[in-house]
Amino acid sequence: EKIKKVLELKVKDVRVTNRLTQSPACLVSDEHEMGRNLERILRASGQDVHNSKPILEINIDHPVVKKLGEADDEQFGDWSHILFDQALLSEGGELEDPAGFVHRLNNMFLALDSFAKDNQ
């Protein structure tokens, strides 16, 4: 629910899945909607396609998703967006805000580095 609230403008829903084993998350289409790949193909061919929101499926057993529970509110928001963006990139999509992705990723690395130094 917390991830869904953070990503409410980008996703239709967030749900737990047992299908994923190696990935922390993936994007899927609702069963009554066109697949995202078909949307991209139609858009590239000049068709006017309704832009539907995907469903973010998360693997709650993945270490990245488990770390979300340890994050403060600001980090949780950034990390939720990174999780969404990774899922989007994994399916061959394009980032809406590449600079924002890089900024959030850099902040995450800096936070991890700071955490590691504090715990030495």
SSE order and pairing:
Layout: H1 2-6, E1 13-16, E2 25-28, H2 36-44, E3 55-58, H3 63-68, H4 73-90, H5 98-118
Parallel strand pairs: 1-3
Antiparallel strand pairs: 2-3
Helix pairs in contact: 4-5
**DSSP helical segment count:** 5
Percent range for helical residues? 40-55%
**N-to-C terminal Cα separation, in Å?**
34 Å
Mean pLDDT: 86
Order of helices and strands: HEEHEHHH
Chain oligomer state: single chain
The main β sheet shows up as: 3 strands, mixed
Radius of gyration: 16 Å
Task: Report the portion of residues in β strands.
Answer: 5-15%
Shape: globular
Tell me the total number of β-strands.
3
Looking across the biggest beta sheet, what order are the strands in?
1-3-2
What are the segments in which pLDDT stays under 50 over at least 5 consecutive residues?
Answer: none
Secondary-structure-based class equals mainly alpha
